[in-house]
# Entry
Amino acid sequence: MLIRELLAAGNPSFSFEFFPPKNDEAAAQLENTIAELAELRPTFVSVTYGAGGSTREKTIDIVTRIKRETGIEAMAHLTCVGSTREELSQVLRRLADNGVDNILALRGDPPKGEKTFQAVEGGFSYASELVAFIREQSGGAVCIGGAGYPEKHVECPNPAVDLDHLKRKVDEGLDFITTQLFFDNRVYFEFVERARAAGIHVPIVPGIMPITNASGIERFTAACGATLPFKLAAELNRRRDDLRAVQQLGVAHATSQCMDLLMGGAPGIHFYTLNRSTATREIFAALQTSGFAARHAAA
# Structure
């Protein structure tokens, strides 16, 4: 089923993001995570796409297996990095042949060791071009999601320019937007307000990453341009050497974020799981207890 139809149903969506594993141990961890989170009956899940298409085969395999074996709707990430139009067209055909009709279209990050993004000859430089290409290739047969940056993309000079880029993607055919992680809900609500004023009216799903490791979340925020509110950062620093205390803080803060977002009209929550299930399950259980998520979803 197309994710745009699931979002249009009116119930809050709950979705999880996974990434392809790099070794056998990580693969086993991912299988356990998928099995545990599948019990929550998410609206959909997504699987990322490595730099330069390095995990292309694994991405296609994972989204296909999730959809066939669990019955959960699965969305494949697709990027411009290292791929020509013909290569991207082949990937789209393979996804379609495997019954995958939801795609998150991204420009992608520069390959490791490179500071700036460079399109390959015959490829695309911008996510908006990829969105237009997917729409041209498939028409309305697929649902296309895209990324939004509440605090602007790290490479963008200012939020106004970044919003123009987002509007261009929507004009080319985005059906919905999933945001980059953030830790202050004010950032999300102001971003949505600016987007609506700019004529962007597709659903904007907030992306939430529960804090599970102090140094890890600091690396993530530095890489993607997100910020930690001072009070949260101070509390995180105080607990830094106590992993369980950090995880408890992360679950509590993310749960509070989710409740506030849903009360404020967010169409759902997209969890960046880092291929782990514990924090997400704890947050989801709290949302169920508080009435924000249907209890039968875990049946």
Notes: Strands lie at 13-18, 44-47, 74-79, 102-106, 143-148, 176-181, 204-208, 268-272. DSSP finds eleven helices and eight strands in the chain. Residues 3-211+267-277 form a domain with the TIM Barrel fold (CATH 3.20.20.220). The chain has a mean pLDDT of 92.
